[in-house]
Structures
1.
Amino acid sequence: MSDANRMRMTKQRQIILEELKKVTSHPTADEVYQMVRRRMPKISLGTVYRNLEILAGLGHIQKLSVGGTQKRFDGDISLHSHIRCRDCGRVADLNLKLESHIETEAARFTDFVVLGHHLEFIGICPECQ
Amino acid sequence: MSDANRMRMTKQRQIILEELKKVTSHPTADEVYQMVRRRMPKISLGTVYRNLEILAGLGHIQKLSVGGTQKRFDGDISLHSHIRCRDCGRVADLNLKLESHIETEAARFTDFVVLGHHLEFIGICPECQ
DNA sequence: GTGTCTGCAAACCATTTGCATCGGT
DNA sequence: ACCGATGCAAATGGTTTGCAGACAC
């Protein structure tokens, strides 16, 4: 699964990756499915889920830990924060970064080993205002 | 729903609130159900879900927007960040707060109306290390 | 040829909901 | 008495999985 040596670059996987790199939205698995289906009508939703998981594991895409019921995926793997619409769930990028030592700082307050962080804003998108 | 005047303080609702205020963990709906069941064995899971939603709407408890598949609830309604265990999903408080200007700052970078933010750390809890 | 990947459909799991009845105010 | 709340069970919705055949290497 996470061993790139044994991973096959199937047509399905290729197209999922391409479509995700094309957009700046942060599609849910089902939205990726709809996008990919235009180019490959026979692909199954299960395959989309499996590949999103694999591609995220390899670091080619990002699985977003945002609120809401559905997971969202991002073709942009750079560290950046997001804002989610309270009303429609849409997610947009927000180019605000925390100082890089925030995790070191956080480690002082917990007995957990700190691995990373997410900053998410909640708001109302232009469409919903 | 959100009109406190019309809300009845049923025994179920009372106990759910009490149990949640008792603990510093951040239980899932099912964990709350298990806690409440000790005092009220006939309560239904549906009632727990309905009341958690209502209590959160009234601001008596907090619904956490953390990653993971299950929603979690917090009897502590103060603004604070959390750290979630990558391996077991456990959530703990982390007394690290961002400067209060962060939302005003964020508003400059987006066309969303900014309403709030969540800061979540990911790590490995003592049990899982 | 081998072993991973796919499509399909069924299974899973957290959460929500319809409904008849109950109980707070 | 009114109308919101409960218990129960079925429905929902997103995601995962088992399996037999297909395909990348």
2.
Amino acid sequence: MKQDFFDRVYKIVAKIPKGKVTTYGAIAEVCGIRSAARTVGWALNGASSTGLPCHRVVNRRGALTGRVHFGDPFLMEELLRSEGIEFDKDGNVIMKNHLWIPKKNSKNKKSNKKKK
DNA sequence: TGGATGACCTACA
DNA sequence: CTGTAGGCCATCC
């Protein structure tokens, strides 16, 4: 069933520890679809209804791209700040201090990513 | 069945 | 370094 992909994303998002944030690319890679980062965001589109901490999911730059999908753009920021997450002057999350990479429960893979 | 959309990422100019 | 273009996967119409 294709929804298994959604389940993977939900599981990972639900595993995000408090005070930490992850990126779409990280989730996509853990799901096994690094190139389908867009699909991850698409899955989160329904995650806002599932009650998952989608507010802890940000893009590669740490920008809250999907905050508008929460219903309140400021809600996401408040939630993250309530968890101890800090924002820079650009309004992006300090991923270098709060970035959390989910663990894969399957086989390992090469982990090589360049930072900007 | 095919085209279009989506909360992205990477590469090239 | 900034900006633009392409791609990739999954779902919806």
